Amino acid sequence: MIERIVHEQLDDLEKAGPGADLVEVFTESVPSRVMCEMIGVPESERKTLQRHVETLGRLSCTVPEALAAVSGMSGFLSRFVPVRMDDPRDDLLGDLIRGGQLDEQELMGMTATLITGAFDTTGNMLAMGVFTLLEHPDQLAKLREDPELMGNAVEELLRFLTISHLGASRWALEDVEFAGQSIKKGEVVTVALPAVNRDPERYDNPDQLDVGRTDHGHLALGHGVHQCLGQHLARTILRVGYEALFDRFPTLRLAVPADEVPMRDDFVHYGPRSLPVTWDD
User: Fold this and answer.
1) What is the pTM of this model?
2) What is each CA distance from 63 to 60, 67, 80, in whole angstroms?
């Protein structure tokens, strides 16, 4: 299913022609379409949900904008989930319903989490990874020479980019002494994930992108009980997406200078707002 959706979006990219925005045609659409099919969300709802998720991820969004987005998302979930509970299908949401362990509110929360992750983080990571590989042609050449490196490349890109750039907050459950600091029970600690993933005591040449790196152990997808719910799905989408894109468009390159690519620097998750690309017909 993922491969089918990836290739359908690449067909759209080819139709759009050189100069197309990769974010609009490919990286935003692939993970959102995959998740919609996995939980049975109608295609007609996808663009509206995308707007709600984008609004809630924007740091500069106003309170009225946030409330409107929450209301829109909640309204969809309150219509969608009960209907599916009465008639569970053969998909991920149907499996959760038939499991019988989640009530309606929990199913709505789980569905919201799945939608948010697919519509935001995976799409940004897909776009940011392409941008990064295009800016590191030596690493892209290694992947072309040895496609078996793609699994390592995905992990390295996750480490190197760490698109969740605002850190992760945790509450201390008890008094802790850490690195010479005293953390009291109930205090909040914010972990700077990009710093952790480029710790020179943990990685050799941490600021260097190396698709052949095998020593991963990054925290880009969280840790312990806080690990990303859809991490294995995200890895698969990234691997299939990168492989198919660079195979289909071997001369793919940026259509504008790298410093002219607009970035989502006012969002919880980092990535390009748009990514104009071109290739040789």
Assistant:
1) 0.92
2) 9, 6, 25
Nearest to 76 by CA among 96, 103, 104, 48: 48
Shortest CA distance to 122 belongs to which of 8, 208, 36, 200?
A: 36
Distances (CA, A) of 177 to 50, 222, 226: 43, 22, 22
Answer for the pair 132, 276: CB distance below 8 angstroms, yes or no: no
Q: Which residues pair with 168 in a beta bridge?
A: 191
Pairing of strands 168-171, 188-191: antiparallel
pLDDT at residue 167 is higher than 80: no
What is the average pLDDT score of the chain?
Answer: 94
Residues contacting residue 65 through CB under 8 Å, at least 6 positions apart: 55
Own/partner pairs, 203-211, CB within 8 angstroms, 24+ separation: 203/159, 209/132, 209/136, 209/139, 209/156, 209/157, 209/160, 210/139, 210/156, 211/139, 211/142, 211/143, 211/149, 211/152, 211/153, 211/156, 211/157
Cβ partners under 8 Å of residue 230, min gap 6: 114, 117, 118, 122
Confidence of residue 191 (pLDDT cuts 50, 70, 90): confident
Residue 85 has a pLDDT of 95
**Residues 141-155: pLDDT tens digits?**
999 999 999 999 999
Can you give the length of the chain in residues?
Answer: 281
